[in-house]
Write a structure and sequence with these properties.
about 575 residues, mainly alpha, two-stranded parallel sheet, two-stranded antiparallel sheet, 4 strands, globular
Length: about 575
């Protein structure tokens, strides 16, 4: 901030540092504000598409299934077969499963899974689909038969317990065990059915259409900001194609199994080009990392619903909001005092990336402290590698030691950086683990805005403020990444909508409609474009100075180790000692 300082006048104890104030023109010429407007345009379009089109007899089915669940809950001291069937039917009421919703998803979906032929990610003939289904069809039939057999056993055991008026503890226990076996058989049947459910498709026309629409959408934003629409639009197709390749690499069976997702591949493909033949000059106007990801982060804000956060109670909030800032502060202190990292901006960016929620926090923090692009790229690269390791390693470790699903979910949700990787790891371990992990990660994501504000204040007041100087609030406002406001407002607005319309309606129309059926799909495309842009503007020659002594890796490993151990201990204390009643309700 030296360039913003003025000489100290005689008789004055400090200098007020001011960088400038937001004008009305900034609201449509600055990238942060444009990301907010574009994000909200998408959110409004999603609401207009889904809310007027609820599934047929939706409220009638809500009442029917809820009545069944209420009656069954009063009938037995455990969740009966009918209760689970009604609960499953309730979850299947989803706005995105309607014909128009499926059309939208088909248009926005990424390339599909493939094994040995990458063409299958974009195009699959009927003959190919039939050949892929053949070895799995028999397995699907056996799994279905096993499910039916498990259903018969569960009903028989439940009938015996009912005959004893549910007062025989042994019969009740046996019925619960058979119902648990039924649920497990149902999951196996669903997986087997999906393996045998390959259908022919041709994604190429949809991808071309999506590229044109997104190119025009972002290009108009660039034009409003005073830049060339044409140059952006032409270069955009190159960036989009690389993003498609990144999705294709992620969808390869082996890569998908080990958690090497599209963010990592997008960066790798971009780096291969930028560090060999070089990124073509005509592509550079479309290499817009922050433009893409800031718009995506506004959409991410809408997915953070306060109702879901409160549902998991105080333990989840405590784990996310106490462990995370402790790790952030401790890691930054360790980097400065012990490792003696020369770059404070790299130190805090890595600390936020690792402790808060990965790339999203890194982007916001880097903007707040004005980190160099090379430092942001390095932090994101470390995050991608360790996310893949943790996504596979943490569920495997939890299974090895027989960790409780709630404890495992809390542990993974607070320590795995990527939201998608958290969901994958939780789903691998179990349904409860998935719910807890995803909810805690959602709670943790709120800290993106808090972290950005805190870093902006600290950098202005301490790091870049010379002794005897004072920083005005305008400087903090000027430095604060404005797109975070969009992120926070989107969360507040959609949380209000969620609370106003009620649980079942919100789940079916907002969560399983507007968000999962529209905005989340677009958000992931925006992130893919952003990661591709990171790679295309990254030059390895500029990284040497940051890797001296291996300090960034040492910082990340040390911070992640602290977070893994502390979160596991705190999660156990919160869920099983202080608030065991919450764990019992999940």
């Amino acid at each position: 901030m030296a360039e913003n300082s003025r000489a100290k006048p005689a008789g004055q104890d400090y200098v007020v540092i001011e960088s400038g104030k937001t004008s009305l023109k900034d609201l449509y010429t600055k990238e942060d504000w444009m990301a907010i407007w574009m994000g909200f345009i998408i959110l409004i379009v999603g609401l207009l598409i889904f809310l007027p089109r609820p599934p047929d007899k939706m409220q009638e089915n809500f009442n029917k299934h809820n009545t069944t669940m209420k009656e069954e809950a009063a009938k037995a001291p455990f969740k009966t077969v009918a209760w689970h069937q009604a609960s499953s039917a309730l979850k299947r009421i989803r706005a995105r499963d309607q014909s128009f919703g499926k059309t939208i998803q088909e248009f926005l979906n990424a390339p599909s899974r493939w094994a040995s032929n990458p063409v299958n990610a974009l195009y699959r003939s009927k003959a190919t689909a039939d050949a892929m289904n053949a070895p799995h069809e028999e397995g699907a039939k056996k799994a279905k038969a096993a499910q039916e057999a498990a259903l018969a056993k569960a009903k028989e055991a439940e009938k015996a317990a009912a005959a004893a008026a549910f007062k025989n503890a042994d019969l009740n226990k046996k019925a619960e065990a058979e119902i648990a076996a039924l649920l497990k058989a149902g999951e196996a049947a669903s997986k087997a059915s999906s393996k045998a459910g390959n259908k022919p498709y041709n994604r190429i026309p949809y991808l071309i259409g999506l590229a044109i629409i997104l190119g025009v959408f972002f290009g108009i934003g660039k034009a409003i900001m005073g830049q060339s629409f044409g140059k952006f639009f032409v270069g955009f197709f190159f960036v989009f194609v690389l993003a498609v390749f990144a999705y294709m690499a992620e969808q390869q069976n082996t890569m998908h199994h080990y958690g090497f997702g599209f963010p990592l591949w997008a960066i790798v493909f971009g780096i291969l080009i930028s560090n060999t033949v070089g990124t073509p000059k005509w592509v550079m106007p479309a290499v817009q990392t922050e433009y893409f990801i800031k718009t995506g982060l506004v959409l991410l804000g809408a997915e953070i619903l306060f109702g879901k956060i409160l549902a998991i109670g105080k333990p989840g909030i405590f784990i996310a909001w106490i462990c995370t800032p402790i790790t952030l502060i401790a890691t930054y202190w360790f980097g400065q005092r012990i490792l003696k990292m020369p770059s404070k901006t790299l130190n805090i960016t890595i600390s936020a990336d690792m402790s808060v929620c990965g790339v999203s926090a890194a982007i916001a923090t880097a903007a707040a402290c004005r980190a160099k692009k090379e430092e942001l790229t390095l932090a994101i690269g470390l995050s991608m590698v360790f996310t893949a390791i943790c996504m596979v390693g943490q569920p495997a470790f939890a299974r090895l030691v027989g960790m409780d699903q709630i404890l495992a979910g809390a542990w993974m949700g607070s320590t795995i950086d990527s939201t998608g990787a958290v969901a994958a790891a939780g789903a691998f371990y179990g349904e409860k683990a998935l719910y807890v992990a995803a909810t805690i990660k959602m709670i943790q994501n709120i800290l993106i805005g808090v972290t950005a504000f805190g870093v902006a204040v600290y950098w202005c007041a301490k790091v870049e403020c010379a002794p005897g100087q004072q920083v005005s609030w305008w400087e903090i406002w000027y430095r604060f990444p404005k797109f975070v406001l969009g992120f926070m407002i989107a969360s507040i607005v959609f949380s209000i909508i969620d609370g106003a319309v009620g649980g079942d309606y919100s789940t079916a129309m907002i969560d399983q409609g507007v968000l999962r059926g529209f905005t989340r799909l677009l958000r992931e495309w925006f992130f893919a474009l952003a990661f591709t842009s990171i790679g295309l503007e990254t030059n390895f020659r500029e990284f040497g100075q940051y890797f001296k002594g291996g300090k960034p890796i040492t910082l990340y490993v040390s911070g992640q180790t602290l977070q893994l151990v502390m979160t596991l201990v705190v999660a156990y204390i919160m869920f099983f000692i202080i608030f065991p009643d919450v764990a019992g309700k999940i």
